[in-house]
């Protein structure tokens, strides 16, 4: 994660906002179940923080050996037509934000009605920084 993200987390983090550090073994298990490799920025986030966010943002991830919210949500959305190259990283009412695990590693918005993939961010860190900043602005 970049320095700006680390500063945001340090300043606004409250107890219970993140699961905490996750072992490489649990990350590999989630990747195997979804048959993808996590992009580096996302993998670093999961390894350091597990899942969660600040000021109400809830980024899906890996919570332990037996449960991974990213796996549960991605599998559920795949049943509705989500392409296999995407990980669901946040559920937002009628749509989800997804991280591309191939090529560009961009973040798209997707819903199970239109099935459109609308690019929103060029990287996971861009998505995280924007989501956190918007939440901070609305939190203050």
UniProtKB/TrEMBL annotation:
Q: Which protein, by its recorded name, is this?
A: SMI1 / KNR4 family protein
Q: Where is the Knr4/Smi1-like domain?
A: 21-130
InterPro entries with a match to the protein in the record: Knr4/Smi1-like_dom, Knr4/Smi1-like_sf
Q: Which SMART domains match?
A: SMI1_KNR4
């Amino acid at each position: 994660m970049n320095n700006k993200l680390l500063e945001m987390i340090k300043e606004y983090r409250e107890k219970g906002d993140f699961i905490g550090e996750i072992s490489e073994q649990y990350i590999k298990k989630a990747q195997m179940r979804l048959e993808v490799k996590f992009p580096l920025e996302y993998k670093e986030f999961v390894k350091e923080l597990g899942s969660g966010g600040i000021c109400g943002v809830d980024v899906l991830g890996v919570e332990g050996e037996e449960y991974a919210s990213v796996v549960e949500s991605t599998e559920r959305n795949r049943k509705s037509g989500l392409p296999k190259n995407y990980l669901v990283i946040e559920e937002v009412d009628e749509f989800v934000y997804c991280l591309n695990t191939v090529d560009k590693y961009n973040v798209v918005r997707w819903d199970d009605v239109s099935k459109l993939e609308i690019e929103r961010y060029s990287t996971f860190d861009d998505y995280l920084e924007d989501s956190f900043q918007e939440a901070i602005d609305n939190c203050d």
